[in-house]
């Protein structure tokens, strides 16, 4: 095993590395692109009012790009929005604050998803707040499906675990957010086409979940990878773990569409018509 049991504590902001970015650009864009195709007309209209001509794929990387901004929020506060550390999976509900309405109270990714969702549901929110919330929400749903954004605090979600990827030095976090995605040699639109499914029951199963569930799934996957203790990554590792990457991107895309439809379309019901008909 890489390390001992999971510990829950907030990482000091000074320890949050820029390498905690999830999925890299392509992975986030895949999730945004997949979701875009399953928005209902009502949802699409609302989103266009907020984003203009920008697509979900285009804004999906915005919170990572803003880390170079000199504002205090982006330098000192935004990092903790991207991840969560869990002591025991059965205690996950203790981390949830569905009613959170103050940006300053966001402690982790689950708070971030709840906060941005609440801003978008609030008819009193101004356009700038909605733009911030929508761009961040698209990104956070993606982050929630990257296993090591619900990993262990002591190794910064795999960032401190050194591995070799076909002889190149990297870390475990980066392998899952970038290397395994980029190894497919696909554009984000190609990748999206490859993982799109017509299996309505599978999609319904994906939608029958909450953000807490998504993070618990990620934590379980991360723990399994920790336990395998593989540090020399080559063909066998690619074969073993690429299906997981594809499933997580697929789940992220459909769940993002379902969540946005529930926010913006009053006729959208979970598992019934939360997605646009295809």
UniProtKB/TrEMBL annotation:
Residues 1-22 form the signal peptide. The keyword RNA-binding does not apply. Keywords: Disulfide bond, Endonuclease, Glycoprotein, Hydrolase, Metal-binding, Nuclease, Signal. It holds the Pfam family S1-P1_nuclease. It comes from the Bacteria. The keyword Nuclease applies. PANTHER family: ENDONUCLEASE 4 (PTHR33146:SF26). This is S1/P1 nuclease. It comes from Pseudoalteromonas obscura.
């Amino acid at each position: 095993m890489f390390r001992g049991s999971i510990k829950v504590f907030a990482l000091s902001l000074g320890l949050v590395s820029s390498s905690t970015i999830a999925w890299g650009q392509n992975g986030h864009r895949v999730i945004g692109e997949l979701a875009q195709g399953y928005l209902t007309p009502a949802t699409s209209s609302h989103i266009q009012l907020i984003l203009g001509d920008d697509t979900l794929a285009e804004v999906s990387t915005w919170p990572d790009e803003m880390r170079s901004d000199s504002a205090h929020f982006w330098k000192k506060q935004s990092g903790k929005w991207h991840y969560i550390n869990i002591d025991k999976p059965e205690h996950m509900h203790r981390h949830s604050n569905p009613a959170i309405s103050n940006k300053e109270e966001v402690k982790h990714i689950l708070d971030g998803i709840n906060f941005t969702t609440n801003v978008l549901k609030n008819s009193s929110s101004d356009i700038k707040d909605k733009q911030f919330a929508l761009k961040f929400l698209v990104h956070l749903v993606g982050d929630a499906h990257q296993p090591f954004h619900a990993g262990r605090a002591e190794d910064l979600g795999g960032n401190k675990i050194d591995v070799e990827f076909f002889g190149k030095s990297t870390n475990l976090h980066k392998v899952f957010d970038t290397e395994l995605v980029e190894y497919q040699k696909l554009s984000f639109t190609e990748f999206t086409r490859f993982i799109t499914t017509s299996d309505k029951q599978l999609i319904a199963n994906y939608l029958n979940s909450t953000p807490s569930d998504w993070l618990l799934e990620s934590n379980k996957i991360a723990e399994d990878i920790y336990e395998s203790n593989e540090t020399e990554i080559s063909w066998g590792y690619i074969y073993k773990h690429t299906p997981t990457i594809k499933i997580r991107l697929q789940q992220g895309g459909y769940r993002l569409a379902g969540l946005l439809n529930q926010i913006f379309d009053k006729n959208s019901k979970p598992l019934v018509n939360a997605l646009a008909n295809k």
